[in-house]
Amino acid sequence: MAGTGIFTEILDGEVYKYYSDGEWRTSSSGKSVAIVNPATRKTQYKVQACTQEEVNKVMEMAKSAQKSWAKTPLWKRAELLHKAAAILKDNKAPIAESLVKEIAKPAKDSVTEVVRSGDLISYCAEEGVRILGEGKFLLSDSFPGNERTKYCLTSKIPLGVVLAIPPFNYPVNLAVSKIAPALIAGNSLVLKPPTQGAVSCLHMVHCFHLAGFPKGLISCITGKGSEIGDFLTMHPAVNCISFTGGDTGISISKKAGMIPLQMELGGKDACIVLEDADLDLVASNIIKGGFSYSGQRCTAVKVVLVMESVADELVEKVKAKVAKLTVGPPEENCDITAVVSESSANFIEGLVMDAKEKGATFCQEYKREGNLIWPLLLDNVRPDMRIAWEEPFGPVLPVLRISSVEEGINHCNASNFGLQGCVFTKDINKAMLISDAMETGTVQINSAPARGPDHFPFQGLKDSGIGSQGVTNSINLMTKVKTTVINLPTPSYSMGDGFISRL
Ligand code: G3H
């Protein structure tokens, strides 16, 4: 159970502690932040409301711990990461339980998130050993006007303190996707979990603690974004920010200093369906892509753009599958569970009502109980409806009927988002042309959008983000290139003759 067994020390009465300088602590604020269970709408957990002073302390520790961590052999950093991954996987049950309770993720998916996270950490350790263990050697005579008198050695060095801010929908996985690359590259790490998802993050951090990472290298600070959010992101000790979430990222990017930013800020992933597509395959992918975790994924299918000639058939197939989705508690592994908060449910309802007023065809009756919204397919959606452009982050999916592929591409490209998209056709040549025309970071051919496997590059264009993720790209983003140039008095060629006369 969460907060028991090896996790007892992270709890103080009924409030979870924060992690600083290698110890679990209670905030001097004496205040806590409540985490509401989306399904029951009752307070499930409480976490510390940390102060700005506590943030300062964490930053000071992170700066100093990083100095010696950067001198820790790479193989040793990797060894500790492998250890943390194993502890995390061994303790998947209590961590998954807190995911179920604080973000209403179905039980099976919660376990998958923890296991996937352990695998990500291990992969990152191995990739780090490979790519950080080698550099480049450049010779000057490849550039016009130069002789071979300069040898340039390049290597990757850490940035310093990395601030990681994961979102509520993957609090563990999207935290470790930032933590592991930061650590293997020799950085220290300050984690600010989302409020909902904080307890899962604290359990995950305890696995790193038990693995034996040095004091101060990893910290986890909880509290209200309104009190410590800007203070953290604008803190002078921070050398890199890795953020996943909504448009808060845009304001962070405006306030942050001259530091590398890695951001993923959502999407309106389009699913373009051509006349020759395998409609059974499309329907299954629309269900998986549009409704898993109740549509609360950045990479969810958020608009279907289907050729008019096959639209009726596709809508019928999707409708039949929607009817089979189970709705209810995450503990029972229902497909559709309560969305994360009341305000989120209200926002989704606003989009649905707008579509209703403007004449969309409801394939199911709209039904909501508290934060639980039944899956809904909206057909005949037009571009003047909000749902055609805005991301509901819920189990509501619009279908726009198109009369040409160009119309589909234009709709996709008119979005302010550009995360992923997908195209269904049996014609690979057409698929490639459409992929090239779509202004998104990734295009999936004949499958729903998805970030994983976690080592694939993952990036968004436009308002969907800055920088690229995926294990290798994250390690590279969290390092800087350092060069040393050896200047020789005379040109020198390996195995060249006459060197003795030049000595
Ligand atoms: O919600 C944003 C995530 O990066 C999506 O990840 O494609 O594995 O669901 P996923």
Summarize the structure in words.
This protein has 503 residues and is of the alpha/beta class. Helix content is 38%, strand content 22%. It has a seven-stranded mixed sheet, with helices on both faces. It has a six-stranded mixed sheet with strand order 11-10-9-12-13-26. Strands 1-2-6-5 form a four-stranded mixed sheet, with helices on one face. Helix 13 links the parallel strand 22 and strand 23. Helix 3 packs across helix 4, helix 4 runs parallel beside helix 5 and helix 9 packs across helix 10. It starts with 10 loop residues before the first strand and ends with a helix. The mean pLDDT is 97. The structure holds glyceraldehyde-3-phosphate. The site of glyceraldehyde-3-phosphate (G3H) has 8 residues, from loops.
The average pLDDT is 97
Main sheet properties:
7 strands, mixed
β content, as a range? 15-25%
Tally of helical runs: 15
Distance between the termini: 73 Å
User: What is the count of β-strands?
Assistant: 28
Query: Which structural class fits the helix and strand makeup?
Result: alpha/beta
Relative helix content: 25-40%
What's the short story on this structure?
The chain has 503 residues and is an alpha/beta fold. It contains 15 helices and 28 strands.
Secondary structure elements and their pairing?
Elements: E1 11-12, E2 15-16, E3 18-20, E4 23-25, E5 32-36, E6 43-48, H1 52-69, H2 74-90, H3 92-103, H4 107-132, E7 136-139, E8 150-158, E9 161-165, H5 173-184, E10 188-191, H6 198-211, E11 218-220, H7 225-233, E12 240-244, H8 248-255, E13 261-264, E14 269-273, H9 279-291, E15 301-307, H10 308-322, H11 342-357, E16 361-362, E17 368-369, E18 372-373, E19 376-379, E20 396-402, H12 405-414, E21 417-418, E22 420-424, H13 428-437, E23 442-445, E24 458-459, E25 461-462, E26 465-466, E27 468-469, H14 471-477, E28 479-487, H15 499-502
Parallel strand pairs: 2-6, 9-10, 9-12, 10-11, 12-13, 14-15, 14-22, 15-20, 19-20, 22-23
Antiparallel strand pairs: 1-2, 3-4, 5-6, 7-8, 8-28, 13-26, 16-19, 17-18, 21-25, 24-27
